[in-house]
Predict the structure of FHS family L-fucose permease-like MFS transporter.
Amino acid sequence: MNKDSNKSILMIITALFFMWGFLTCMNDILIPYLKDLFDLKYWQAMLVQFAFFGAYFIGSLIYFLLSLKFGDPINKIGYQNGIVIGLVISSVGCFLFYPAAQYAMYGFFLSALFILGLGFTMLQIAANPYVSILGPAETASSRLNMSQAFNSLGTTIAPILGGYLIFDLFFSEAMSGDAVKVPYLVFGALFLLMAIVFKLIKLPNFVNDSEIVKGIGALKFPNLSLGTIAIFTYVGGEVAIGSFLINFIGLENIMGLEEATAKNFLAYYWGGAMIGRFSGAISLSDMPQSKKYLYMVLASSLSFGLIFAIADVSFETVIPYLFIIGINFVAFILGKSVAGRTLGIFASVSVILILVAMFTNGNIAMWALIGVGIFNSIMWPNIFTLAIKGLGKYTGQASSLLVMAILGGALIPLVQGYLADIIGVQMSFIIPVVCYLYILFYGFYNSRKEEETSEEEQEEQAVGMMH
C-alpha cells in the first residue's frame, strides 16, 4: 500500500481517536445533567462512570479469557473487523440514549453507557496497533503520539461543544431528558458511518505474534503487579476529578458558577493532557537538549492557545493556569527524561495541587484542581511502559491485565461520590490524593530500580574493560 493511502487511512483512524476522546469526556457533562434531572445523590450520579468504565473491565476480562482458551480473538477476526465491531457496538450505545431519554429512566441511561463502553473497549484493543503498522516501524511512536494528541483534543473540545448542546442549545428540553437525544443520535450515526467506511476500505493485513500464555504468570513480576494497581489508581483519580469538577466549581466557597459556565473550565482540565503529551513527546525524543526546551515551550504555547480560543474564559482569569504550565516545564527538566523519576515528580505535584484545592477557596482552589490535568498527561504511557518492561512472552497477558485495571475509573469516582455525600465535595478529594500518593510510590520505586540497573551495567562495563 502506498504512502498516500496510508496517510488517508491514518487520518480516518485519527478521527476515530478524536471521537473516542470526545465521547469519553462527555460523561463529565452527563453527570451534573443527570444528577439534576433525576435528583440523585453524588454516589448515584457517579454510577455514570461506574457503568462506562466497568464495561472496560468486563469487556477486557472476556477478551482475556477468550485469549487463554482460543488464542487472540483479534488475530482470528482481523484488526479491521475488530474496529468495525467496536464502532457498531459504540453506535448502538449512542442510539440507546434516545429511548433512555424518552422513558426518562436512569437505569436505561446506565445501560446505554455500558454498551458504549464495551464498544470503546474493542476499539482500544483493535485501533491502537493499527496506527503502528500504517508506515515504517521507526516512525510508529510518532504516529501513535499524534493519534493520542487528537484523542486529547477530543477531550478538550467535548466540555465546550457537548456542554453547549446539552446546557444551552437544548436547555429548554433539559428537564424532560430530551437534551441528550439529538447529540447522541448524531454520535451514533457518525460511528455507524465510520463502521461502513472501515468495512469498505482496504487495510494492510496484520498478525499479532505476541504469545498469550496460560495462567497469570505475568503477575510474578513486581513491576506489573504494582503497575496494575498504578493504572487502577491513575484512571480512577483522573476520572474522579473530571467527574466532580463542574460541581466543585459550582460551590459557593469556590466560584459559585452555573453548570453552563463551569463547563468552560473543564476544557482546561482535559486540555492539560494535550499540553503535557506534546511536551512529553518532545522531552523523550532524541533531539538536542537546547532544541527540546524551545519546542516544548512552543508546543505548550500553541496547545494553550487552542484551549483559550475555544473556552469562553477571560485571559486575566486563566493567568494561574499559565503559572502551572511553567511548573510542568520545570517538572519535565527535573525528570531528566527518566520514566519512573518523571512519573514520581508529576504525581508529587498532583498531590500538592489537590491538597491546595481542598484547603483553599476561590480562584486558587479552582485552578489548583484544574492544573492536575496537565500532570496526568504522561502517567498512562509511563506506567504502562514501566509495567510491561522485561516481561517477554508475558507481555500480551500483561497488556490485558492493565486494560482491566481501567476498572479504577468505575470504582474510585463511586467511592468519592459516597464520601462527598457525607463530608462534602471539597473534602472528598482526599480519595484522589490517596490515588496519586500510590502513583508517586510506583514512580520512585521504578526510578530506584532504573538507577540500580544503570549502576550494574556500568560495573559490568568496567569489569569488561579490565579484562
